[in-house]
Hints:
By secondary structure, the chain is mainly α. It folds into 2 domains: 1-47, no CATH class; 61-270, Orthogonal Bundle (MetI-like fold), CATH 1.10.3720.10. The protein has helices at residues 2-28, 32-35, 49-58, 63-94, 100-109, 119-128, 135-141, 146-157, 161-169, 174-185, 187-202, 206-211, 220-230, 235-270.
Amino acid sequence: MRKLTITVVMAIGGIIFLLPFFWMISASFKPEEDVLAFPIQWIPETWNAIDNYSQVWFGEGTFLLYYWNSFKVTMFTTLTSVTVSSLAAYAFAKVNFKGRDLLFIIVLATYMIPPQSLLVTQFLLFKWFGLIDTHLGLVLLNSFSVFGTFMLRQFFLGVSNEIIESAKIDGAGHFRTFFHIGLPLVRPAIATYAILRFIWTWNDYQYPFIFLRSENLYTLQLGIYQFADAHGSIYSLMMAASVSAIIPLLIIFVIGQKQVIDGIQLGGVKG
């Protein structure tokens, strides 16, 4: 009875948390006059999905351009961050050099610094390098992650040192050992971090808002704000734009959920 009660309570809580999501999807299919109808019509009586989504994607505005900008920035950021963080994690876990542990503690300590406190310094630095109002600047801002380095280092520590030593005896250098031995053994962890990095970058509003000036460079999060501002309080179109924005996240999670689960299980065993 105790387990049954907990299961029922958690199920009810899950449904409550999902209600806004269901309302958003339902509102994106309705004509505007039915969106705020009371009581709520969870299943639309009149379907207006084609008009809503076609107006969002192909109507006045540059929603499609915002979508492409977000996709481009997110893909390059994820690729760069995964590469840099995995290389750093391998070095901290398997490469012996003087001051390694002290350097890792210093890197880890920077995780305690709120990102907002660095915005002024980052802005001045990027302005000096001419990276303001560029997609390259957004990619470089998230090219290294302390969390990603720490997470992947823990998985690399679980790789047997005997395997690494065997590769060295066979003449493999650090890069060859990393690419041919290290990466395949921690692939679930790499996939997990890549999915997390993709989600964080796709949903990021702060950095694009501060470092982008040209509207043709706006990412989707800024674009939705512009879209909502241009269309006032037309909730059906705003909800259609919001649903369109989360589709890539759902696809990424569905494709990579097995890798995420494997990564969690592997981390539990290693821990």
